Every structure is written in C-alpha cells, then in structure tokens.
Amino acid sequence: MKLLVVGGAGYIGSHTARQLRRAGHEAVVFDNLSSGHAQAVPDGVTLVRGDLLNPADIRAALDAHQPDAVIHFAALIEVGESMRAPGRYYRNNVTGSLNLLQAIVDTRKIPLVFSSTAAVYGTTDAVPIPEDAAMQPESVYGETKLMTERMIHAFHVAHGLPYTILRYFNVCGAAPEGDIGEAHPNKTHLIELACLTALGQREKMMVFGTDYPTPDGSCIRDYVHVQDLADAHVLAVEALHAAHARGEAGQATYNVGLGHGFSVLEVLDAVDRVTGTPLHREVAPRRAGDPPRLVADATRIVRDLGFTPQFTDLDEIVRTAWNWHRTHPDGFRR
Ligand code: UFG
C-alpha cells in the first residue's frame, strides 16, 4: 500500500512512517514543518513540504503521489495554548482538516485514518472510558478534534469516505533505537519533562496536585508507547483499506491505550530508577483542566484489530524515552 502521512514529520507521525515501512508499505510524508522535523522522516520516505491551510498543496500531493490511503496527524496539540489562542487552533486543526477532507473526496475518495485524542471525552465518571462515553471536551484543543471527528463522519455519510478514528491516551516513549523521539517546541508532557530534568535542563519536577481521589493522591493516566501507537495505525489502515477493497463502508472509532494507568508519582519513581538520579520534586497546586483519572477501555481495538502493545512495563517505557533524550538533549537540533 502507498500511504500519504499528513503531519508525518512530527512525533507520532514519524514513528508511524517508520512502522509502515517495516510492515512493507510505501509512505510519503506531507508536513509544513511548523513543529515537525525533516530529520525525523525515515530513510526511503519522501518528504513533501506543504500546508493544509493551502488547499492547492494537498491537492497537488494527492495528484502527484496517488496514495491508497491517508493518515492525518497534522494538528496543534497543546491544551493550554489552545485556550489562549483559540483562533489558531480552530483555523489550523479544523479548517486544515476540512481542506484535506474536501481534497480527498474531490480527487480520490480513499480511506482516512485520523489522530484523535482522549481529550474529546473531558471529565467523565466512566473510567475505564469506552468509545461511546459522553464527549464534553474541556479545552479548545479537544473541541477541534471533536469537530474534526464530526466533519469526517459527515463526509462519510455524504460522500462515502471510509474512515477510522484513533483516540490516543497519553502517548510517550521513543523508538527503542533512540534515534527519533519527542521534540516539541513547548514541553508539557510528564515523562519528557522528567527526562529533561534528570539531564539538568530544569531544576525540579512539579507534581500538579497530590490531593486527588486516587490511591497516592496524584493523577492517573494511561501511558501508551509511541511505537505501539504507530503499530495501531498500521493495523487500522490495513484493515480499513481491506474493508474498502471489499466494498464495505468502513467506519470505526477506537481508543488506543493500555487499559490501565500509572500515577504521576509512580511515573516519577520509574524515572528515578531508570536514570539513577532521584529528581527534586515539588508539590504544586492542581493544573487547571486535569481530570483525576484517564484510562482507556481498549477492548474494542484489541478485539477488532488484534492490537497487542509490546511496551507494558513502565520502566521499559521510560527507558526508551530516557535513551532518546540522553543521546539527543537538544532534540533534533545539534
Ligand atoms: N504533570 C505534572 N507535572 C508536570 C507535567 C505534568 O504533575 O510537570 C501531570 C499532569 O498534571 C497530569 C499528568 O502529569 O496529571 C500527565 O500530564 P501530561 O501533560 O503529560 O499529559 P495530559 O494528561 O495533560 O495530556 C495528554 C495529551 C493530551 C491528551 C491526554 C489524554 O497531551 O493531548 O493526554 O489522556 F488528550
């Protein structure tokens, strides 16, 4: 299969492009490099520099490369920033996705796999969270992902667009080879920050709240390894493409997580063990918008796609992140 990977120079997109190649597929990355890195694009994968906000760019890429399916990662992803700059988020994430959808149905009507997020659920009492839980995003970021999910469904109903939506929980870790990993311009993710603190780039780790109704008082999250998540995309696009070839409508939504969680304090303990340096920790007030417990009900993706995560041990997950940060303390910058 030939895949167009939109946003494929980013953290999750680059790991997915690599796993697609390993599964024997051809990949072309389309990315505006606003937060992605050309160095993250695997060998043997063409990088097309283009912007979804310019419809001619994506139409030209579809025409030139004639892919069999599209995987769409391109988005701004920071919850806090989305509250301060909603216009940027709606324009980039919603209008950008709309341009992609329109280009797909106008030109090739090929299947689409879309990167969504557990942030579409917001705070919910249903934990582990099933895919049919109520969706009440608490941030503009989550809202833009939910709006895009709804646009995709409308294009499916009106134009027969086959789709699979993957809602990620807390993506973390790095390729075990240590050559690609997380390198966001603004760092907010727990494991990345803890590794950079262990490298001495920051003075201490703030623990945002130890008064939550959880066993140790800190928030619980479902940490899914980026390479397992990349493999989930390979399974999803293969299944969707096969269903499309059989003439089936193709429409599915899956949570992607391990189905169990770790607390902030458990994660920091793991980082201490892996790095061998106990981090200086400081308890800080709760961070706005953090639900106490976000854990996926992942039974649907296991049942339908045979998703089998390889990275289930917290220390092993952290070790891959540490290996990347230790050898690339400035990310992709020299
Ligand atoms: N945390 C700290 N200190 C820090 C950073 C984070 O205590 O310095 C805590 C947070 O308060 C939270 C947990 O660590 O309880 C995880 O925080 P992250 O920022 O790593 O991740 P989030 O859970 O906020 O969000 C991530 C993605 C979202 C996605 C969500 C789904 O960034 O896009 O997971 O579970 F929606």
UniProtKB/TrEMBL annotation:
GO molecular function terms attached to this record: UDP-glucose 4-epimerase activity
Q: Name one Pfam family in it.
A: Epimerase
Q: Residue limits of the NAD-dependent epimerase/dehydratase domain?
A: 4-257
Q: In which pathway does it act?
A: Carbohydrate metabolism; galactose metabolism
The keyword Nucleotidyltransferase is assigned to this record: no
Coiled-coil residues are none
Q: Which UniProt keywords apply?
A: Carbohydrate metabolism, Isomerase, NAD
**Catalyzed reactions:** UDP-alpha-D-glucose = UDP-alpha-D-galactose
Q: Which domain of life is it from?
A: Bacteria
Say if the entry is tagged with keyword Cell membrane.
no
Cofactor(s) needed: NAD(+)
Give the E.C. number(s).
5.1.3.2
The signal peptide annotation in the UniProt record is none
* Subunit-level organization: Homodimer.
Q: Which family does it belong to?
A: Belongs to the NAD(P)-dependent epimerase/dehydratase family.
> What protein am I looking at?
UDP-glucose 4-epimerase
